[in-house]
Amino acid sequence: MKPRAMILHATGTNRDHDVARALELAGAAPEIVHINQMRDEAMRLSDYQMLVLPGGFSYGDDLGAGKLWAVAIRSRFGADLDAFIAAGKPVIGICNGFQALVKSGLLPGIEGNAAGAWTQQATLTRNESGRFECRWVELAPEGTNIWTRDLETTIYCPVAHGEGRFVAQGDTLAEVERANLVAVRYVGDGYPANPNGSLHDIAGIANPAGNVLGLMPHPENHIVGEQHPQRHHGPQPGSGLPLFENGVRHAAGT
């Protein structure tokens, strides 16, 4: 059977259906679930094998991008999410979803977090350019997480954000590097290859267990050749689909 993937919708997210298409092509059975439905005991996270926090502008990015979404996740089903992650099930947060995972403390999650006691260790703040960046970027996969493991080619996909600059204090940043938690880096020298000024060109990170991934770019928006801006010049490499296939393959075994 295809693994069930919950796409967690919050008011203001807008990449839900893009991710659903990517998951379908990768072999999963996606379902878009509004976070308010998690109040219903009939809707249980444990019934799913995969969780996706999509991009957009949850709650209008009030109090900062992803902040209120992080609070809602923690307060409404924090213990269930802790159990989900501890079971090794894959979780991915893209753009606004990455911001929520970082601001909830689930990423990088170096110290480990108990339900209700998550500690924020980094942030995603305003782009160094001072403006919203919407452009295509190249990403180099690395690390030992289940999402980018064995990916041998770079990923080419768009970014679309105003608060995507990854920042962490010295000790946290050093531990992210030492523990191989960087999952994808921007390829190229400075701006615009690194569109937001993220430290160490970090575009995405994973947790120490390797099953939770967050990244600012949108691999779900390059899963078929027709989405590539140079598609009229022939087949183009850099699809984001293998990343989702890795996640779905892992979900199928959990």
CATH C-level:
Alpha Beta
Number of strands: 11
Tell me the helix content: 10-25%
User: CATH homologous superfamily name?
Assistant: Class I glutamine amidotransferase (GATase) domain
Q: What is the CATH architecture term?
A: 3-Layer(aba) Sandwich
- Determine the strand fraction and express it as a percent band: 15-25%
Molecular shape: globular
* Average pLDDT reading: 93
The termini sit apart by 12 Å
Helix-strand topology string: EHEEHEHEEEEHEEEH
CATH topology: Rossmann fold
Q: So how many helices? A: 5
Strand line-up of the largest beta sheet = 2-1-3-4-11-10-9-6-7
Structural class comes to alpha/beta
> Strand count, sense and closure of the main sheet?
9 strands, mixed
List the uncertain runs.
none
Rounded to the nearest angstrom, the radius of gyration is 17 Å
Q: How many domains, in number, for the residues?
A: 1
Brief overview:
It is built from five helices and eleven strands, in the order βαββαβαββββαβββα. It has 254 residues and is an alpha/beta fold.
